[in-house]
Write a structure and sequence with these properties.
Layout: H1 3-11, E1 14-19, E2 22-30, E3 33-37, E4 49-52, E5 57-61, E6 66-73, E7 76-83, E8 88-94, E9 102-112, E10 118-127, H2 130-136, E11 142-148, E12 154-156, E13 163-168, E14 173-180, E15 183-191, E16 201-204, E17 206-211, E18 214-219, E19 226-231, E20 237-238, E21 249-254, E22 261-268, E23 271-278, E24 284-286, E25 294-301, E26 304-311, E27 315-321, E28 327-331, E29 344-348, E30 351-356, E31 364-369, H3 386-392, E32 395-400, H4 410-414, H5 420-437, E33 445-450, H6 452-463, E34 469-473, H7 479-489, H8 492-500, H9 508-511, H10 515-518, E35 526-532, H11 540-552, E36 557-562, H12 571-589
Parallel strand pairs: 31-32, 31-33, 33-34, 34-35, 35-36
Antiparallel strand pairs: 1-2, 2-3, 3-4, 5-6, 6-7, 7-8, 9-10, 10-11, 11-12, 13-14, 14-15, 15-16, 17-18, 18-19, 19-20, 21-22, 22-23, 23-24, 25-26, 26-27, 27-28, 29-30, 30-32
Amino acid sequence: MSLPELFFTERQKHLLSWAEGGPVRAHMEDAETLRITSPTPHGEPRAPHDIAVTGDALLYAQASESFVSFALDGDRLDVTHHALDGTRHGWSTALPTAPRGRWALQDVIETRSAAGGTGFALTVVDEQDEEEEEEEGEAEGDTLLLVAEGAGTVSHRPRAAGSLVHWDEGAAVVVLREDRGPFQPLLRAEPLDVDAARPVITTEGRWLDGRDGEALVLTDAPGAPRLALWNLRDGSLRHPDAGPGPGPVDDARFIGAGTSSALVVRTYEGTDRAWLLDLASGAAEPLDTPGAGRLLLRVATPRGAGLYGLSTTEGTSYRWISPDGAVECAPGAVPPDPALSPPTHTYLGTTPALVYEPPGETTAAVIALHGGPESQERDELRWDGLYRELLHRGVLVVGLDYTGSSGYGDAFLRRPWKDWETAFGRDLDACLTALRDRGVTADRTALLGGSFGGSLALLGCVLAEDLAGAVAAAPLTDIRRQAARAAADDARYAAWFSERYDLASPLARQRTFDPEHLTTAGPKQRVVIVHGENDQVTSFQDSSALVARARELGLPWSLTADASGHVPDDADEARFRHDQVRDALAAVLDLP
């Protein structure tokens, strides 16, 4: 199995818990079977445990470390707990009668019941015949139901639309998330008693975790994301003193039995670090996670929290953090590459970057441009391990955090708005100067970008005609058309695009990401666009039209199509996309 296929397959496995010897994981074996695999301590084989996927929903309950299936039968709900050791336990409860038809389950989340045990909050909708809907008008919306074994059902009708993210019986509130397109979600905590004097309290931010009347939320993202403790009773928002270490917060969860401690992941200079944070004092303890690269917080149970690590040089790994801060580690499917050194975070002029040095002589360079634009380069298995192959072929890789990236403050993120050409021109000049000082000329340098990074790769060929060329995967190639499509789906995108890009200018150069301007690239530069025909984020048709225009102008451009979406949807597509990008870069740089 190739590295892209291996990596894709591992990412489809869900980290559940930790047993002696390593991680407990689950994956879909087929459309009807969930397979749980556990480590094999002392070399003893342990057969996987299969769960039949039936009913209306299947949820992993982290508090009880079990899968829970839900089946609706009229006004009766059957609940079955599937423990990780293969044992089962079931119970049933009666639901209130659906006023107009029958309940249909839309979503379910785990919560805590009044009795102190695990409960579940269901989002249901009252279905009825289509003819009745036409006669009576629009449907009434969602109903929320709290169920727990041995307890009566509690019902709540939300005052406004939104997805349920938390039900807190102690604070007597439910928290709903209103997704607002490109802008920060609005979190709304509304009292369970609709007649209560308490008002609905709100905050903007990303929901992370909640329990016992407190919530962890991420505010001020993406410019300067900060961890905040949100009181669900009075609406107060407190940022823990100092916080754990440098860099913006990426994720966090409560750890242990209460709300006094949190496991926090922060990103600093392209690498993630984990900290144990005392939420009262702000004291932070760094945890032992060397070589992890990027850390994805996958699960948080009363026994601890599980992290998935991924790094270009160190491969993949799993980490388990106990409430006392003890760390256990197990290797993942992708092994380390001992011939490679971890990347160096540096500044090329004023532009931050991760620089990966090849183990031998440097013969060429690739400047890699992340998507977003409001994202950043990290030491992870970018491009499904492609950096490894490039490094072993003597290609130095620069992961550029161009101006407009997140992670370096709000001013850095906003600086290029409506003047991307000037800002990226400075970044590119600084990068090419640094490469020339290392003995790599522009004609031995290619740009590689995905999504918005692909757009910048195409723009770079306009700004520096002596570059060898570019490979752009799923790029945005017509900013006006992209903005119009986004605004048609959600009107809020109109303001988001107009704030960042000069859509109204009659000049293609000022619009920057415009077919007329992007095709003023150098006449000898090889440009390859790789785009999935089923991309729902950026337009394959726009890319096709751009390449056709370039070829009419005599430019040596080409388009490689595949059947994927914006990113590959299965292991075969991951391998194909990887191979196409690799071969395109080899052609642009004339690699042996």
